[in-house]
Write a structure and sequence with these properties.
Purple Acid Phosphatase, chain A, domain 2; binds zinc ion; 12 strands; 6-stranded mixed beta sheet; alpha/beta; 9 helices
């Protein structure tokens, strides 16, 4: 049985990605796949994209990857500003032709994948790039959850909210914590693998998942977010994008 590491929401954070890839290597995982949002928010979109191209067996499209090639009206001002900055660092030109492979890779990402008997998308099985499956949806939006679970007959892996955990078939969301980080994959469920580059569950450590047979484990690894913060401030991006990395929010 192949073991599979799932990374998502890297958001141009090279320090976090480096540490996560090293941990995955140490765990002896067979393959790595990426659930999208390679870019946005951070300052290193090109090296992060190149690492993903080298190390991931496949990658699917996140809303920030999509945003590089479309209008940014639907993004909040901080996300928009960072995406414009990312676009400038990625866009190929006759002076910078070596960027072309990464640019076309991000442009041509698929919106969903099926592999190993599982489904994979960035957002939700109904709207794979844009829709959030929130941890509160189980009790605030039961009709939405009913529809989403009507679309899946097996485990579905997502990212997008930056909150690791599992939406069970009874719509209950079980958050991944140090005490509860391993989950059994029996039948339909929506597993959120968390975020490598910008966790939002109050824990600043980078998050990723390892799938082994019918089990998934959420891993957390600390990284030097102060370096990432210094780069964000030096680039002139909004200080809130640096500050949130320390709080994991
Ligand atoms: Zn994201």
């Amino acid at each position: 049985m192949t073991t599979l590491a799932l990374i998502s929401d890297l958001h141009s954070n090279l320090e976090a990605l480096d540490v996560v890839l090293r941990r995955i290597e140490a765990l002896g995982v067979d393959e790595i796949a990426c659930l999208g949002d390679v870019v946005g928010y951070g300052t290193d979109p090109l090296p992060v994209t190149r690492l993903v191209m080298q190390r991931c067996r496949w990658t699917i499209k996140g809303n920030h990857d999509w945003g590089l090639f479309h209008g940014l009206d639907d993004f909040n001002p901080l996300a928009r500003e960072a995406l414009v900055y990312n676009r400038r660092l990625l866009q190929p030109s006759w002076l910078r032709p070596r960027r072309r492979a990464a640019w076309e890779f991000l442009r041509d990402l698929p919106e969903r994948m099926q592999a190993y008997g599982f489904l994979f998308c960035h957002g939700s099985p109904r709207d794979p790039v844009m829709e959030y499956v929130l941890k509160s949806d189980g009790f605030l939006e039961p009709d939405k959850m009913q529809q989403l679970f009507g679309l899946i007959d097996r485990p579905c892996f997502v990212g997008h909210t930056h909150w690791p955990g599992v939406h069970r078939a009874d719509f209950r969301f079980v958050q991944a914590t140090d005490e509860q980080r391993e989950f059994k994959l029996d039948g339909p469920c929506i597993v959120n693998v968390g975020s490598v580059g910008q966790p939002r569950d109050g824990d600043p450590r980078a998050s990723f998942a390892v799938v082994d047979g019918d089990r998934v484990e959420i891993h957390r690894v600390p990284y030097d977010f102060r370096r990432t913060q210094a780069k964000i401030l030096a680039a002139g991006l909004h200080p809130a994008l640096a500050e949130r990395l320390a709080r994991g929010k």
